[in-house]
Structure formats: structure tokens, C-alpha cells
From TrEMBL:
Cysteines paired by S-S bonds: C96-C414, C229-C492, C275-C289, C461-C469
Protein name: Phytase A
Record's subcellular location: Secreted
Gene Ontology cellular component list: extracellular region
SUPFAM superfamilies: Phosphoglycerate mutase-like
PANTHER family in the cross-refs: 3-PHYTASE B, MULTIPLE INOSITOL POLYPHOSPHATE PHOSPHATASE-RELATED
InterPro entries: Acid_Pase_AS, His_Pase_clade-2, His_PPase_superfam, Histidine_acid_Pase_euk
Keywords, sorted A to Z: Disulfide bond, Glycoprotein, Hydrolase, Membrane, Secreted, Transmembrane, Transmembrane helix
Length: 494
């Protein structure tokens, strides 16, 4: 059945022979995940057909479990934070109807990357001659058992929930004949996030509408869902500079608590990162979380802000250009005109126009590049300092690109009078841009952008208090993308 085929994917990424070679700790972890997904499948089998009769009617069957950690702490994990809405979703002003939705979403929570060195930092701490702080006692018998790269069950549930939420919010745009068009970048965790999103979407429709992942774009080639720019910086210098600022007191405290342990600046970040990664993997509070204070996690969060700003954000001269291809695709969808792009767009792949709902799945670095190419969170006049943290900054990775983060671009049809004021309750939405109605009113097309449910101000295209600007003004504001990055794309390779 559909749920067995789809939902088993994220948790069985290895052939059986490879499973047999896993360490005992990894096997235990996989056994736990197998039991979890078996329970999920059983619930879906028993309740999926009668979805509207259960208590999950409005929240979905599969929900992300609580972690036993205060939300304020989870929000301090930077790009490793789980998704939270930045604000309660606000519907468009009266007089406006949503006619198209474009979603750009990050994959759900994952295991550490293969090149992360968390286990080495844990081992250095464990080599202490003794532990004199009881918070470190768990290390006496600790065994590192996190795997690499793949989507976590927690991440799968995030994606599932997101798919259901999209249907409930935008159900009027979808039917059995008008399906969402879904794409994914080619990394397993991204594909599995997209797949679970489609399952959550289908579940919310009582399996009446079953979207699929239509296009998967390999990451070994330049594409609009994966940032590639060989000559761009990666923010390493700036991250190291901030580490030198906030890590020394932590190093001093840990070495006092664990005499004989050789702790370096990089180890501080890695040990702090164990808090979110182990908590999300095991769905309970990791013991590593208690080793650090709230203020230290705020400094940890700022480390992620700096990385994103100086990697594909405004702080890297070749950062925004890595989002240009997606922006040009977005313009094509909003206007119904063919893509005009000479950067990352691959015109050999399916790219239908005229759809009402698009969902693309990607990584956080690409999302940051898109934000920067579009002009969101623009702090070029006040760049992030590597010496002092601005507590009032708007560039915050946990709000911009947490696990399962999403940017939504809504196209609106708004009924206006001759003075371009919104009219309450439009009588029709299936009209062309600026078409006169019989009573002297007009329907005009507008755009608004939401990041994790918060409406963005869009001052760069003249948006007012509702965060809405005309479609024409929005497109005009994206001149950098339409000029293919003003030569920056070529600098990625020359």
C-alpha cells in the first residue's frame, strides 16, 4: 500500500548485507527506529481510512515527538534547530485570494554529515584522567552511535506534518486532476523528505490526492536546488574567528571538570552540536545539553548565523548568485512564461508552467543563497561581526533555515478599486492581471513571501503593512537574478 512503500524509505537506506556489518550500537539504534516506523505504519493502517473520525483530524497522524528540552533551548541550535513557526500564519487581507503557491523547503532533521568530527571531539573529552563534575559521569560508559547523513525519524515526521499542513492551508488549489509538482535535490535525505511530504499531503486528503516526487536532480551537476560555486568561500575564516571569542571560557571549564582532556576550540563547537544531533536522533534530551549554559548556546547559535552569512549569504560575494537560478524559475512560475536563466536551470528536465502548487526540496545553504538573491534579510549595511554578537540582529539561522524550514511565495489575486485599495470579499479570482470587472473594479496580481510562516516585509518592491507588493513590482525587484548575477556566476568557475 502507499504508506508502506513511501514511509519505509527514510529508515531503510542500506542493503541487508550492510546492515549485518553495523556495530551493535548502530544495530540497537536501527532496531529502535524499526519499531517506531512499524508503529507508525500500524497507526496509518488502522486510522488512515477513517482519518476524519479520529482526534488527528486537524493535526495529522504522524507528529514530531517532544524532546524533553525547553523550546527556548531548541531555538538556540542555529541551523540544527527543529522547525518552529516564526509567527502564526496570517491569511491574506480580505479582497485577496491565493492563486498559486511556491514552496522551497529544507530537508528534515538528519544525522551528522560524514565529514563532521563530533566523535573525535567526544573521544578527546573521554580521554580525561578523571571526571570531577557529575554532569560528565555519563561519559564513563558512553558509546558514540550516531550514523551519518541520512534522514532521522524525527525529520521524516517533520516533512510528513509539513505536507499535511500545506493541503489543509491550500486545499482550494488542488484536486485529483491538479496535483502539486514536487522536485527534490538528489541527496537521500532530501529525496526522503520530499517523499514523506507527499505522504503527509496524501494522508490529509484521505488518500484522495496522491502527489509524487516528479523530478530528482542529481547533485553532481549544477542545478537550482543545490548550490555549487567552486570559487566561493565557505565561511571558515569567520567561524574560526568567532570560535576564538566564545570558546576559551568553555575550554577552561571543561578541562577543569575533566583533567587531562585536551580540548581545542573546534571541540567546543562539536561537543555543543552533540546536544541537538543526539537529542533529535534519540528523541530525548542528550546528556551533552547539560554541559553548557543558555548563554553559551546563544553563542553557539551565532556561530551558525556567521556560517550562513559568510557562506552563501550577503557576506560572501559569490553567495547570492548561487540562488539566482531558483529565483528565475520562480519568476517563470509566477508569470507563466518560460524560464530565462543562464546559470543553474536545466531545461532538459520537466518544468511545467500553469500549476497552482509547487514544492521543491533542498538544503539550507541553497535557501540562504535564494534569500540573498531575492533581497530577504538584507543586512549588507550592518554585516555580522565576528567579534561581538548583536542580540537584536535579524539574521538568525534558527529562524531562517532550521530543519524542515520553508519559504513560501504566494501569488494573490486581489480586487481593487481605481485607487488600488483592496475591496472586501472578491467575487471572482479567475481573471487576468488588471482586468476590469463589470462594476468598475479590477483584479490585480500581487505577491507575498513567508519564511516559516512569518510574512516578510518586501520593502524592496514597495510592500505595505500586509507585506504584499504587485507581481510586476516584485519581478522588477529581482533584476539581479534576471541579469544572471551580473557576471558573478562566471566568477564561480573562472
Amino acid at each position: 500500500m502507499w504508506f508502506k512503500r513511501e514511509l519505509s524509505l527514510p529508515f531503510t537506506n542500506r542493503p541487508l548485507a550492510e546492515h549485518n556489518t553495523l556495530s551493535s550500537n548502530h544495530s540497537k539504534l536501527r532496531h529502535k527506529y524499526f519499531l517506531q516506523i512499524s508503529l507508525i505504519l500500524a497507526l496509518l493502517f488502522l486510522t488512515g481510512t477513517y482519518y476524519s473520525r479520529s482526534k488527528y483530524e486537524f493535526t495529522g497522524i504522524l507528529t514530531s515527538p517532544p524532546l524533553g528540552i525547553p523550546e527556548r533551548v531548541q531555538r538556540q541550535w542555529g541551523q540544527y534547530s527543529p522547525w518552529f513557526p516564526n509567527k502564526e500564519y496570517e491569511y491574506p487581507p480580505e479582497g485577496c485570494e491565493i492563486t498559486q503557491v511556491n514552496i522551497l523547503q529544507r530537508h528534515g532533521a538528519r544525522f551528522p554529515n560524514a565529514d563532521d568530527k563530533y566523535v573525535k571531539s567526544v573521544q578527546r573529552l573521554m580521554r580525561a584522567n578523571k571526571f570531577v563534575d557529575s554532569k560528565l559521569d555519563f561519559l564513563r560508559e558512553y558509546q558514540y552511535d550516531l550514523e551519518e547523513e541520512e534522514l532521522l525519524p524525527f525529520g521524516a515526521s517533520q516533512s510528513f506534518e509539513a505536507g499535511g499542513a500545506v493541503f489543509r492551508r491550500y486545499a482550494h488549489l488542488i484536486s485529483e486532476k491538479i496535483l502539486p509538482f514536487v522536485r527534490a535535490s538528489g541527496k537521500n535525505r532530501v529525496i526522503h523528505s520530499a517523499t514523506n511530504w507527499t505522504v503527509g499531503f496524501a494522508s490529509a486528503t484521505h488518500q484522495r490526492i496522491n502527489p509524487t516526487v516528479t523530478v530528482i536532480i542529481p547533485e553532481d551537476q549544477n542545478n537550482t536546488l543545490h548550490n555549487i560555486c567552486p570559487n566561493a568561500g565557505d565561511g571558515s575564516k569567520e567561524k574560526e574567528a568567532w570560535l576564538k571569542v566564545f570558546s576559551p571560557p568553555i575550554i577552561k571549564r571543561l578541562q577543569k571538570a575533566a583533567p587531562g582532556a585536551s580540548i581545542a576550540e573546534e571541540d567546543v563547537f562539536n561537543l555543543m552540536a552533540m546536544c541537538p544531533f543526539e537529542s533529535l536522533a534519540k528523541q530525548r534530551a542528550s546528556e551533552f545539553c547539560s554541559l553548557f549554559t543558555d548563554d553559551e548556546f546563544k553563542e553557539f547559535e551565532y556561530h551558525g548565523d556567521i556560517e550562513k552569512y559568510y557562506k552563501t549569504g550577503y557576506g560572501e560575494s559569490l553567495g547570492p548568485v548561487q540562488g539566482v537560478g531558483y529565483v528565475n524559475e520562480l519568476i517563470a512560475r509566477l508569470t507563466g512564461r518560460p524560464v530565462e536563466d543562464h546559470t543553474q536551470h536545466n531545461d532538459s528536465l520537466p518544468f511545467p508552467l500553469g500549476r497552482t502548487l509547487y514544492a521543491d526540496f533542498t538544503h539550507e545553504n541553497l535557501m540562504v543563497a535564494v534569500y540573498s538573491a531575492m533581497g530577504l534579510y538584507n543586512i549588507t549595511d550592518d554585516p555580522l561581526s565576528t567579534k561581538k554578537m548583536d542580540k537584536d540582529r535579524i539574521w538568525v539561522a534558527s529562524r531562517m533555515v532550521p530543519f524542515s524550514s520553508r519559504m513560501v511565495v504566494e501569488r494573490l489575486a486581489c480586487q481593487v478599486d481605481r485607487a488600488s485599495r483592496f475591496i472586501i470579499r472578491p467575487e471572482r479570482t479567475d481573471v487576468e492581471r488588471s482586468e476590469d470587472s463589470d462594476d468598475g473594479r479590477q483584479m490585480k496580481e500581487y505577491v507575498r513571501v513567508l519564511v516559516n510562516d512569518a510574512v516578510q516585509p518586501l520593502k524592496f518592491c514597495g510592500a505595505g503593512k500586509h507585506g504584499i507588493c504587485t507581481l510586476d513590482a516584485f519581478i522588477e525587484s529581482q533584476a539581479y537574478a534576471q541579469r544572471n548575477g551580473d557576471g558573478d556566476f562566471e566568477k564561480c568557475y573562472n
